[in-house]
Every structure is written in structure tokens, then in C-alpha cells.
Amino acid sequence: MLEDVAGSPPLRSNEADLSTFWMPFTNNRFFKKNPRLLASASGMTYRTPDGAEILDGTAGLWCVNAGHARAEIVDAIARQAATLDFAPTFQLAHPQAFELASRLSAIMPAGLDRIFFTNSGSESADTSLKIALAYHLARGQGGRNRLIGRARGYHGTNFGGMAVGGIGGNRKGFQTQLPGVDHLSHTYRPADAFTRGQPAGGAAMADELEALIALHGAHTIAAVIVEPVAGSTGVLVPPVGYLERLREITRAHGILLIFDEVITGFGRVGAATASERFGVTPDLLNMAKGITNGTVPMGAVAVSRDVHDTIVNSAEPGIELFHGYTYSAHPVATAAALATLEIYERDGLFAHARALEDHWETAAHSLRGAPHVVDVRNFGLMAGIELAPRPGAPGARAMEVFHRCFDEGVLVRVTGDIIALSPPLIVTPAQIARIFEQIGKVLTDLA
Ligand SMILES: Cc1ncc(COP(=O)(O)O)c(C=O)c1O
After folding, report:
1. Which pLDDT belongs to residue 16?
2. To test the ligand 1 pocket, which listed residue (25, 65, 126, 155) has its Cβ within 8 A of the most ligand atoms?
3. What is the pLDDT of residue 3?
4. pTM for the structure as a whole
5. Mean per-residue pLDDT over the chain, rounded
6. Matching Pfam families, A to Z (predicted)?
7. Contacts for 332 with CB less than 8 Å, ≥ 6 apart
């Protein structure tokens, strides 16, 4: 695949061969000919190797919620690596793992106070699905092994998350999928275009779950997994009443509800979790990304006391759950997470994000009427700007916006023909204005 670029000139003569890094979710053949590199970062700003400044409109990849290069996190990582670089957490542990689990459980929805550590959002997805299966087995309902995701959902790229995910491109090349998976419809309705915040009419939409239950039988269904606000597909905000109704239906049928809060956790929607913001408590809640401010890979699943106790108390003496990772609660990640939580709390960043939300919404919707814009969606400090695709070239228009904005000093993210925005929560009103003005400017002279 890379042959045609192997001979292309390197970015600068002293740089490594660009062909050796097979980049994830990247058009490698294009990138290797047109590399865009980031060399350093602080606060709201990335810098390229040539020293150009790029305003971060995406918190890296939805993860640097407290802004880049926070000294307290950097120090905590350095100190931890020098003190205890690694400790196994299989039949051993280190004190900070318990401290972090306690701190996390304090900001999770009430009752979700048992924490299982992973290293990424994908691992959190698969962990939560496996815990759901283990729970039903432990209570004598092992026939409940069907998993229900949602069209346009994203739960990472491992086999479990891929199967319950609903983004066609991520699935169709991999025909070995988990059996027994079904999907709800996504919540996007063209008639809701340009809605500010949540559209109306969610409860009726969630009733579709009753139809799936009628089809398969509740006795076969282990869990429903959704992102409270779908992020990666281009920011789909749950219509009013949708999550509440999913909760009612799952509870009535003994089905576990999993919220994948890998994006929405840690302040992105103006609260510690979207669960808190929407007032809907799932049985399991997946985290990653903002847990360490993106500095060290880490993820976690917050599990309800009931689910945890059911599995642990019914197990034969010995290991209760045959699942885990070498790096679960890695000491360096744990130190980074503790320092990150400290900043979130000390600086009141979740409340700050909430306070900025109206301003963010107004700025996002200023793009209504800009060329090619067919929808603007927003919630918390997330926004999706949907463009009409170029005939015969889906995604090309938004990709050009991404490249042009980068070259003009603003980092945006695109998925299909949707521009997805999620700045660090420390963003200022002036920086918000700069992000949307830059996009507007690029759109104005775009074919
Ligand atoms: C909701 C959700 N779940 C899971 C993931 C996967 O996370 P990771 O890339 O850390 O595996 C993502 C990544 O964007 C996500 O948005």
C-alpha cells in the first residue's frame, strides 16, 4: 500500500522515513505526500516543527480537556515513573490505584462506585460488554447474551466495540463480527437541522427498543450500549426524553444499560458525566480520554454496586472475573489521572464548560447560512457542522476544510462531511470566535 509513496521526499532532510509508521484511521498515501506534523503543545496551542501555531479546536482527539502540558500532570508523571514505574495489578496492587478508584467513584453517578481499569476507550467498551455477560451468567440468566448497539454509534475498534458500533466503514471490511448483536436506529432526523441543544421527541424514538425486545425476547438480551451524545459520527444530540426512555425500558426488562462516556465524560457536556447532566443513571459507564487529560493511555468502566456484587459474590473461590490488562491501573497513568482530576476540581472546569455553553452555541450557529452548511448541532462544548457533500466525492469537502483550517492555524476534526469541534474546556470566548470565524472564512471560498 505504501509503495507509491516510499520514494516521496521526506518533509525535511533530517527527518525519519515517513513510510514506516502505518498511521491509524488515516489516508496514509495522501498523508505521506502531504504530512502535517505537530511538534509541541501548551495550553490551547499546538506548534508545528516549523513553529507555526495551531489553535486546538478538538482537545487533541476529544481528550485534552484541561489544555496541554499542565505542569501538575507533567510533574506527577515524572515523579511516578521515578518512584514506581510499573506494578502488576494481578494479585498485587499499588496504593494510587485504590485512591484513583475512590476519587473516580466520587464523581460518578450515585451507585456506580466499582471501577475496572483499562487502557483505552476500545478496551472500556469490550470490558463493559463482558461484564454485562458475566453479570447475567452470575444470576443464572446465561441465555442473555445478545448485545444491542445503535446505528452510527462508535465504541472503538476492538471486536466487541466494533460489533455494537454502527459506523459502516468501521465494520464492513471485517466480516467476523460478534454474533447476536442488533442495533437501534440512530437519532438523526433532517427535520431537526439547526436545533440548538436537544431536539424534541426522544421518548417515541427510544420506543424502538420495545420492538427489538419483542423480536428477540428480553430473556436473550444482556445490554444496550449507547453514547449519550454520539461524538465520532459527528455530534448527534439525544432528543429530549430519549435516554430517559431507554432507561425505563431496559430497567423494566432486566437489561443492563451501558453509557459510553469516553467523549462525554470529564466536563465535555458541562458536568462530570453526561449521565449527571441528563439525570439518567446507567448500570455501567465507560471512560477514557479525559481521564488523564490525554497524557497517558488509560480507560475505566464504572460499574454499579449490584452488578459488581452479583459477579463477585457468586463466583467460586478464586478469581471472580477472568478479564484484565497488564497495564490496568498502570502507576504512571494513575498518577496522571489523579493530577488531572485535581485540576478539573480545583479549576472548576466542568462548571466553566457549562458556563461557556451558551456562548459556544451562539458561535456555532453563526455558521448557519454559510456556504455548504446543512446543519449545526451542539451540546456542552461539542459542535457538529454538517456540510453538503460534493457530488460523487463524499467527505472531500470537509477534508479540505480540515486541511485549510490547519494551514491557517486552527485544528478542527472531520468525520465524513461533518466538522466536529470539541476544544479544551479552558477555551476563551475570543478563541471560540477565532475557531468559527476561521471555518466560516474557509467555507466562503470553498467549491
Ligand atoms: C464513545 C467512544 N468509545 C470508544 C472510543 C474508543 O476509544 P480509543 O480510541 O481510546 O480506543 C471512542 C474514541 O473516540 C469513543 O468516542
Report:
1. 74
2. 155
3. 34
4. 0.96
5. 96
6. Aminotran_3
7. 77, 80, 81, 85, 86, 296
